[in-house]
Every structure is written in structure tokens, then in C-alpha cells.
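Quick one: structure for this chain?
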Amino acid sequence: MRPMGSVAARLASVPDIDVRLDTPLSAYTRFGIGGPADVYAETGNPESFVEALRIARESGLGTVVIGGGTNLVVADEGFRGIVLKLACDKVRTEGTSVYAEAGAVLQHLVDFTVDLGLKGLETMTGIPGSVGAAIYGNAGAYGHSIAERIASVRFFDGAAIRVFDNAQCEFEYRESVFKRHKEWIVFSAQLDMLSGNAAELRAEADRILNIRNRKYPPTMKCAGSIFKNFLYADLPATVAAQVPPNVVIEGKVPSAWFLEQVGAKGMRAGDIQVADYHANLIYNSGHGTARDLAGIIGELKRRVGDRWGIPLEEEVQYVGFPGSV
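Got it. Here's what it folds into:
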């Protein structure tokens, strides 16, 4: 049996796991882009996931763990190695505390809390992806982030299952300790919510969802915003002085403003296109390739860097590219 088949057989012996060979990763990314993984394994059982991860790492083959795939850019050549997905997705509540597993869809968690009259996540309605990914990148919108509600996070550090409180998670704007330790895998979280009025929360969530759906249609093959916004206070003084005051929103300068100044809107490479109404939205309009997507991202980073001397930072993660995980 060839080495890849041998590892697949060992993975398949783990309870509650689905193992497949040569699986196109385009089916697991919102961009709808990406070649095959040599081995793809998925489980909703955290214990099985830990065992599968141990087998994968012992094999010496390249291993990557994915979530909902919203922010993934997978190379056209795919991934030479093992792709693991933790798909546990239960959500439950005890009073105003909510317990959510990492594989739960963030929108489901938002709807769950809103319908129960629990306040704190309603501004995150329409943000794609999983709860685990939201914690990883401290997702948020309209001046709020998931970090505000996180009481604790349960995760696997490669050797043991641990629990961090909010402070230990080291949340910052679109950052967390988990983003700096990519080998750590988020399993679940406890969120402490506030009491609210379900009807009022639903009205607010629906208002925000309508705005977001006009900007990012649910059927659009995209990752939402590609680049992180800038904290105004962190910009060089010479750059900050050129930003119109009305552009600064809650202490942040949208990357879209800088991108507009360098002609990003409407840029296109094959079927990969920058929206003509939003300079920080890149989408796959048909049969786009990862090569074209990475090319446009790189070109936009170069343009903004050349003009402003500031680095654009992607919110997306790369799989299968040279130097990527």
C-alpha cells in the first residue's frame, strides 16, 4: 500500500470519521477555488479529531486544519498532504451563558442568541464562517467583536486540551492568541450574553443583514473583505494627515479607501474581479483560479505599499502555496 493510502487507512480506523482521497478543496471554500487534497478527513467528534491529528502529524506528511473555508485561498494544485476538518457544531444555553462548538456556523449562533433575547452578537449577523474561525480572527462588525462576549475558549494545543479565559486569549482588533499559534485548534467556547428584547434584537439583526447582503450577496463566491482595516492611531502621521475625517469610522480607516485611491475598483484577472462598488471585495465571477486571485491580491498590496508606504494585511489564509501552512 502506498504511503498516502496507508495513512488514509489508519485515519479511517478512527471512530466517527469520514476519510476520502483526492478530494477537491474547491467544495470547501467560499471562493469555490482549489485543487485536491491527497487525503481529506472530517469528524464532528473532538476525541476522534485529536486522534486523527496525532496520526497525521506522526505520518510526517503536510497537515492543515480547516474550518468553514470562508477565508481560505487554496492553490490550484491543491494540497499535498492531509486536510482535517473538525465539524462539531452544537450550540446550547444555560441562562445567559451560551456554549458553542467551533464548527457551528456563526450565523446560526447569532440567530440562536437573538431568538432567545440574548444581546451581544446581533451586529455580527451575516458574517460568514464558523464560530471557531470567528474566535481565531476576533470577528466583528459595527464597533463590536466576538471577544466582548467570550468568557472562555476550549482548545487543543497539540499535546493536551486546555481552557483559556478571555484575557488569556489576547484578543485585539482581528487578532487573538490562536492566530499567533496556528497549531492550536479551537474546540468550543463559552459566551456570556446580556439580556435583551428578542423582537428588538431581531429588528436590528435584520437591518444589518439587509445592508450586508446588498454588499456581499450570499451567493457571491468571496471571502467578504480581503484586507484588514487600519487603526487610525497606528498610521504614520504623514499618511493619517491625508485621510479625510469622514473616512475614519470608530477609530479605523477602511482598507477600501486606500484601495480606491490606487484604482482597485473593477480590476480583473480572468474570472477574479474586484467589485466596482467596493474596493476591498474580490470575488470569483465564474471559474476563477487561485493564481489569478493571489495575483490581484499581490498587485493591490504592491500599489498601496508604493503609494502610502503601509502594508495591507490579508484576512484570508493560504493553503498549498509556497511558504503557506
